[in-house]
């Protein structure tokens, strides 16, 4: 093992041990920011879909098998990336889902994420109920009105919100559960990949401006990961079950490049706001290409699920998952294990490589 591999492995092991043995970092102090607002899909949903008429739910075992609170609706065996980030930012508890958040606890942030959600309203409709990006932003606007009442006036609310971090991670479903699902959607017939990426970015930017107009100032844009390498896509489209599907990854990268440009645009043109981009594509691809650097052994199948390479269906209720979960990058057909989320969260917070983030990592964003 060369020195670079040793360095990455040590970093990963330290982060994993540190996170797994502490429910928070800043037990005896204040968090680095007063609040953390989360918008996204199943990668970060922590319970908003639990009461919905939806096939996109994870409120049953074995989901949450390694989580201290059990099956909460997280699409993981344990923590998600935003749970890891919450700990790194020093919060003394995880951010509540919008479906449960109430009273003064909304002052510390809300998780609006919804499994199967997309930037486009119709995305994921074949799975049933879900809350699109636009719906999540509407819920945030409602939350702001409550914050104004709690703090007493608009100025106090604005001063509070400008210090918070706003994390946005959508777009995966707009490809997996829209553009490349031709049996249900016609978007791939109406738009080529470049046109579709442009449309998504315009809709994305529209929602971001609403968040800005309602007090958001510190933004984290999470790029789409290499979903052409997920167990589901490998099972459905890869000839050998292990080679990533270039067509899908290429489309994702088109979106990500435009998201980086949007960061530049907004940093220039939205006063007093700061935007940064997390390069989930590069970070996650590093795990897949160099798994042994991070202690992983299985890259092309999920720890639970059925079908070829455990890639066609997510965890079935009360299914027995693999025992060596820390060896797997993927928990089910789409979602990372807690072990993988820990590495991604750590590198998002404290960039280990200049390519991990643009222009700054979340640690530095919190300090601004």
From TrEMBL:
Please provide, alphabetically and separated by semicolons, the GO molecular function terms listed in this UniProt record: hydrolase activity, acting on ester bonds
Q: Which GO terms describe its cellular component?
A: extracellular region
Q: Which UniProt keywords apply?
A: Hydrolase, Lipid degradation, Lipid metabolism, Secreted, Signal
Domain of life (superkingdom)? Eukaryota
Instruction: List the InterPro entries hit by this protein, alphabetically.
Output: GDSL, GDSL_esterase/lipase, SGNH_hydro_sf, SGNH_plant_lipase-like
Q: Where in the cell is it found?
A: Secreted
Span of the signal peptide = 1-24
The record's principal subcellular location, in a coarse class, is: secreted
Q: Which GO terms describe its biological process?
A: lipid catabolic process
- Give the protein family: Belongs to the 'GDSL' lipolytic enzyme family.
What's the protein called, per UniProt?
Answer: Uncharacterized protein
Source organism: Deinandra increscens subsp. villosa
């Amino acid at each position: 093992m060369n020195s670079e591999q040793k360095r990455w492995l040590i970093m990963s092991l330290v982060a994993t041990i540190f996170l797994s043995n502490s429910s928070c970092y800043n037990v005896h102090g204040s968090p680095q920011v007063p609040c953390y607002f989360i918008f996204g899909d199943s990668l970060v949903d922590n319970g908003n879909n639990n009461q919905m008429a939806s096939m996109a739910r994870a409120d049953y075992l074995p989901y949450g098998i390694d989580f201290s609170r059990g099956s909460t609706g997280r699409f993981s065996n344990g923590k998600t990336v935003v749970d890891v980030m919450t700990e790194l930012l020093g919060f003394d508890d995880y951010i509540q889902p919008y479906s449960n958040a109430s009273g003064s606890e909304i002052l510390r942030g809300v998780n609006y994420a919804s499994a199967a959600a997309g930037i486009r309203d119709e995305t994921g409709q074949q799975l049933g109920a879900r809350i699109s990006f636009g719906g999540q932003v509407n819920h945030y606007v409602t939350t702001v009105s409550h914050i104004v009442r709690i703090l007493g006036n608009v100025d106090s609310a604005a001063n509070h919100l400008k210090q918070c971090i706003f994390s946005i991670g959508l777009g995966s479903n707009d490809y997996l559960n829209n553009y490349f699902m031709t049996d249900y959607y016609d978007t791939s017939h109406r738009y080529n990949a470049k046109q579709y990426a442009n449309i998504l970015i315009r809709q994305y930017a529209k929602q971001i401006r609403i968040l800005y107009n309602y007090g958001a100032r510190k933004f984290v844009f999470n790029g789409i990961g290499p979903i052409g390498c997920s167990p589901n896509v490998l099972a459905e489209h890869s000839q050998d079950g292990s080679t990533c599907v270039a067509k899908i990854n290429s489309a994702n990268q088109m979106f990500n490049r435009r998201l980086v440009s949007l960061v530049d645009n907004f940093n220039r043109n939205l006063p007093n706001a700061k935007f940064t981009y997390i390069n989930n594509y590069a970070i996650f691809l590093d795990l897949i290409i160099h798994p042994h650097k991070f202690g992983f052994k299985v890259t092309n199948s999920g720890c639970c699920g059925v079908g070829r390479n455990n890639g066609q269906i997510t965890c079935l209720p009360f299914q027995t998952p693999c025992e060596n979960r820390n060896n797997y990058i993927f928990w089910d057909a789409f979602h990372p294990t807690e072990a993988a989320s820990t590495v991604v969260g750590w590198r998002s917070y404290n960039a280990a490589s200049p390519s991990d983030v643009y222009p700054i990592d979340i640690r530095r964003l919190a300090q601004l």
